[in-house]
Amino acid sequence: LINHGADVNVKGGQYGTPLQAAAYAADIDTVKLLLKKHAKVDLTGGEYGCALQAAAISGNVDVVKELLDYKADVDNPAGKFGFPLQAAAVAGHLEILQILLDHGAKPNNEGGLHGFALLAAASRKDNGKCVELLLERRANVALEGGLLGSVVQAAAYGNNFSILEKLIERGANIHAKNGKYGHALQAAALKAEVDFFDALVVKGVDVGYRGGKYDTALQAAAYADRLDLVEKLINLNADFRIKG
């Protein structure tokens, strides 16, 4: 197709550009060919915004390195996840996360579905190593935004009890009220293990707070058919008569 005049930088469709499509497919040979034929490495468009973000979410280290060798912008602001770093974080690709940070990706850039890389990482189950790496690189636990609002709510959604204390030690606000589920306890009532839920209660999270998708933590627990948490919340004086 290229030999017959096809434009390597044509834009359109789900993946925006041929290079982004090849990057998402982890097709290193096609990525190399397109770059050799002068595909623009930072051309934006499509679901993942740019080729580097597509490579970061799909998880192919060789494709990521090839794009960076062609001077891809590690902080290219585009696409579903906002930045390549957020994509690598939410997918749990530790090696790619490390590579992007080593190439100067800023850990506190805001954009995309989860707002910040740390929230993206915390929202994925068993993703503690990515969270720890971002904390080592000075990701700010106090930043709020994105789908899940705060890093503690994201950790509750991801059922990441192992990182909760570390986040709190770094200054994360367990009382933050924002995001899809209103606050961390509602997300925990829906998604997290009992230990996570209990830790929030012990630290004084408001069991009666209203807001978010299910309005209260009690309604979230009831929706998720979690009788143990329903009983705990009622014993903590959560109002079962609230309508919302």
From TrEMBL:
Highest rank taxon of the organism: Eukaryota
ANK repeats: 14-46, 84-112
PROSITE patterns: ANK_REP_REGION (PS50297), ANK_REPEAT (PS50088)
SUPFAM superfamilies on file: Ankyrin repeat
Xref: Pfam families: Ank_2 (PF12796)
Keywords: ANK repeat, Repeat
InterPro entries given in the database record: Ankyrin_rpt, Ankyrin_rpt-contain_sf
Protein name: Ankyrin
Organism: Amniculicola lignicola CBS 123094
